[in-house]
Amino acid sequence: MLPQRVKIVEVGARDGLQNETRVLPVETRVELIRLLAEAGLTAIEAGSFVSAKRIPQMAGSGDVLQAALAATADAGAACAYPVLVPNLRGLEAAMQAGATEIAVFAAASETFSRKNINCGIAESIERFAAVAERARAANLRVRGYVSCALGCPYQGEVGPGEVARVAGLLRDLGCHQISLGDTIGVGTPGQARAMVERVAERVPVEHLAAHFHDTYGQALANIHTVLPLGVSVLDSAIAGLGGCPFAAGASGNVATEDVVYMLDGMGIHSGVDMRKLLFAGDYICAKLGRPNQSRAAAALSARSR
Amino acid sequence: MLPQRVKIVEVGARDGLQNETRVLPVETRVELIRLLAEAGLTAIEAGSFVSAKRIPQMAGSGDVLQAALAATADAGAACAYPVLVPNLRGLEAAMQAGATEIAVFAAASETFSRKNINCGIAESIERFAAVAERARAANLRVRGYVSCALGCPYQGEVGPGEVARVAGLLRDLGCHQISLGDTIGVGTPGQARAMVERVAERVPVEHLAAHFHDTYGQALANIHTVLPLGVSVLDSAIAGLGGCPFAAGASGNVATEDVVYMLDGMGIHSGVDMRKLLFAGDYICAKLGRPNQSRAAAALSARSR
Question: Among residues B145, B164, B123, which one has the least CA distance to residue B233?
């Protein structure tokens, strides 16, 4: 029933850092990514090619990506560094920096889509179609996000049928993987299961990833409920980076340390070395000046003291 | 597969507070229990009849219990207030205070038993046999705890067979319910499932309760995995009180708010009112001078601001 292996897509250096108050320089982000790769992660979101005025945390993402790619080439390692791309201009910049994988970002909530990217779902898919076409012509892999997959900060409930519809549209654009994001962390296991089951009718489960936030503490329970459905790609962020822009003081992405602790305990291979992961978490938390949000990291660090 | 109803045994005023650094006076603990009962909880651990020198946090437990019982009688409500009792002397004190339910505390780890209560498992069961006999003769209900159910801070691994053996012995003493405690929070879902399945071969599952700590962030995932096995009684602590005496800075009991949030989302009835629960959490966190450890509480409070 359970997958023997799970691939973790580490989103701390992008989804995490872009929601942190403190803006970190390029060197720090490059070093974080280097430490994450050293811990055994093989897919690390490296940045976002959006307006630096709108999201200053992601300024210099081209430099971050170039440095990460160079370091990986030196090490002879195989690590993917997807970067978020909102439009054709972002794609061009990403390609200039050497991107081999991009991610596009749609929502399952019409209201959220309009507030977040200033256009409705249909228009966003049209925009991404052009981006995806150009990217694939250049042999880039394209990852798709569906945000608000278990709820929307504005309109509340989001039906699983709508998530399946948007995921299907992204798949039709040629996305090799669709990450289903409970970006506000409100979902519980019953909803998570129903949503993934519904989406899997439209997009084969081997093309799906689960992206949970731990805002309400539900992330591991939600992950635990979707693993037996065949989901074997999980998004998570080192140290639970990210907070939640819609709930001050609330926690953000599920912490990679908590996910790896659970997978290790369940005998599911992730290839990630916990000790090195803790080192990466310590590094970035010191730079951000805030505690590690991972409970496993806090407990393991306390134990080793 | 899932239970339609779950009974929560609120352990914050005992298992929680006894592991908090700040010692709270009787009035504060009585008010906490009153607020918890008002939130709809129908089983609230009220105290521990142990040496006040050894555990000053539980001094005056007789007064706390009397006040709680009086308040419930006034309100005409049906709430149970189990109290921890280590020996016959503790039982006498509990009965003088009007206890109608006691709890005894065994371990599935020989080393932990010796370090925690200064005697091995076999001797502790003998001691509890006398306590249970006397209690049942006086028509008191007896609840049994098995600690270290998924691991021991001293000896590490604990086999599910040993947990089943100790749970069976407690059941043989007449315990109406056996609470299986991962008291250091190290377990993950696969282990939790295997342990409960093994115990259920020895003690019918309707007599079992699950008691998880969130030290490594695994509690809700573990709860989620044991619910389909028929476990319908869950221990939890308001605001995640308790910390972990073996891992400084680490979190303690799973927070009642996180459990209720999950159960509500899954459509499982607990009878607990989240709004009133948040009020109780705010109250006790202010008294303890520390943040609420519940992620659901933090997010809901942030949202309502």
Answer: B145
Long-range contacts at A283-289 (CB < 8 A, ≥ 24 apart): A283/A31, A283/A32, A283/A35, A284/A12, A284/A28, A284/A32, A284/A238, A284/A239, A284/A241, A285/A239, A287/A22, A287/A24, A287/A28, A287/A32, A288/A20, A288/A22, A288/A24, A288/A241, A289/A22
A1 touches chain B (CB under 8 A): no
Higher pLDDT, residue B114 or A249:
B114
With vertex at residue A40, the alpha carbon angle to CA A34 and CA A42, rounded to the nearest 5 degrees, is 80
Between chains, do A221 and B249 touch, taking CB under 8 Å as contact?
Answer: no
Per the CB < 8 Å rule, is B217 touching A220?
A: yes
Chain B contact present for A190, CB below 8 A: yes
Contact predicate B49/B90, CB 8 Å = yes
Look over chain A and give the mean of its residue pLDDT values, rounded to a whole number. Answer: 94
| Distance set, CA A299 to CA B20, B27, B180 (Å) | 16, 33, 21
Q: How far is CA B213 from CA A275, A296, A302, B2, in A?
A: 22, 12, 16, 22
Write the CB contacts of B30 (distance below 8 Å, at least 6 apart in sequence): B63, B64, B67, B68, B71
pLDDT digits (tens, 9 = 90+) for B168-215: 999 999 999 999 999 999 999 999 999 999 999 999 999 999 999 999
Residue A164's pLDDT is: 98
pLDDT at A244 over 70: no
In the block, which residue shows the tokens 């909880």?
Answer: B41
Contacts with A295 from chain B: Cβ below 8 Å: 214-217, 250-251
Which segments of chain A are extended strands (E)?
Answer: 7-10, 47-48, 83-84, 101-107, 141-147, 177-182, 208-212, 233-236
Q: What residue has token string 């045994």?
A: B9
* Tokens describing residue B85: 């009792």
DSSP secondary structure string for all residues of B72-93:
HHHHT---B--EE--SHHHHHH
CA distance B250 to A305: 12
A256 touches chain B (CB under 8 A): no
Alpha helices per DSSP H over B103-159: 110-117, 121-137
Reduced to 3 states (helix: H, G, I; strand: E, B; else coil), residue A54 is coil
Tell me the sheet residues that pair with A156: A152
pLDDT given at position A290: 87
Residues facing B180 on adjacent strands? B146, B210
Bridge partners for A104 per DSSP? A144
Neighbours of A279 (CB within 10 A): 13
What confidence tier does B247 reach under pLDDT thresholds 50, 70, 90?
low
Measure the CA–CA gap between A243 and A20, rounded to whole angstroms. 7
In this predicted complex, what is the ipTM? 0.92
Is residue A84 classed as helix, strand or coil in its secondary structure?
Answer: strand
The shortest CB-CB distance from A191 to any of B224, B265, B300 is to B265
Read off the DSSP letter of residue B229. Answer: G
CA separation for the pair B77, B231 (Å, rounded): 25
Handedness of CA B262, B265, B268, B274 (dihedral sign): positive
Q: Which residues contact B200 (CB under 8 A, 6 or more apart)?
A: B208, B229, B230
| Average pLDDT of every residue of chain B | 94
Contact between chains at A262 and B221 (C-beta distance less than 8 A): yes
DSSP for A182-218? ETT----HHHHHHHHHHHHHHS-GGGEEEEEB-TTS-
